[in-house]
Amino acid sequence: MQQRVKRQDLRPGMYVVSYGQGSFDDPVVKVEKPILTPADVARLVPGDVEDAVVDTQVRISLLGQERPAGVPITTGLADELPIAKRLYSEALDHVKSFVEEVRRGTDIDVRKAEPLVQNFIESVFRNESAAVTLFKLRGFDEYTYTHSINVSLLAVLLGKHLGLDKAVLLNLGLAGMYHDVGKARIPEAILNKPGKLTEAEFNVMKTHPLEGYRLLAGKKDLDPEILRAVVEHHERHDGSGYPRGLRGEAISLFSRIIGIVDVYDALTSRRVYKEPMAPSKALSMMYQWRDRDFPPQAVENFIRCVGVFPLGSFVRLSNGEYGIVASSNPLAATRPEVKVVLDAKMRPQVPRVADLEALAGTPEALDIVAVLNPADYKIDLERFLMA
Fold first, then answer.
1. 178-220 pLDDT, tens per residue?
2. What percent of the residues of the chain are helix, what percent strand, and what percent coil, each to the nearest 5?
């Protein structure tokens, strides 16, 4: 789908098709190039141009490749959310069983997770909003298990946005599911310590990527990229990570994807030693770490994937009302669609959808002024989402 955008609104990740009005004085100039950095705007579109045409069906990957946006939504959120919840519960049972088997030293079958991840993939392709929203509806008391599932889901979601095919997404999802399997070999006193780890304890914690690799290395038919992600997901772009201090392109694509979503889920989850961080704040922090911890454009691509205000975020609007982010707008990331469910006194009201971009510049214009933790307000988001 082609859309005309003001020049000042052009951003990295957009694909510029052309500019010009098609007149004698202002002929159409074909561009057909991606914007990979802010400097590309000046290079591709002259400063005296008022607007340009972009193709919203093309997204830019971590590697700077142009890829199609993917399969459109085929089921509604209300229909897909119960399916996604069931899949999540099945995955939770599997991860608990798997971790206990590792702790007991029982022989493990890593391929048992394949049907689970395959179902995740199909759910994401039917309606990715359900998968993203699900993170906001889960409890925070089982981080050891839910983290692996969240990373698997987020990795599949990001991989889909990068244009990876389903066969590759299956291995990527498995890599996410098992990226922290080595933590089953870490003493629980360290894993669940409420305070800051000592240097010695942190050194023990840092052994989990290699422990995970040792657990999985002998398994038949396990794709080598899965093993690389298990051992490399704490490597960092500038070489400051562990266990081997790899840098740049030496870190595999799977490892880079898992590394990003692993940090995001850790920041936005409640742990024994910290409260969950609002998704928008977590993304802001990760943006500050770009080009240091993460490859160029990696964080920007992830933000375009989940949105500045990720789907399912509980927000307060500038008129005092409260709502849930219902869909993202890649061309106006700070102005998504919000399902408004509570009035300014937090009383339920007839839900309505407010398109913040469509309202911009009108007397009814609204902005998001705060992202809130629904648990602090005892808000059942699922009830409102299904309404």
1. 999 999 999 989 988 888 899 999 999 999 999 999 999 988 8
2. 45, 15, 35
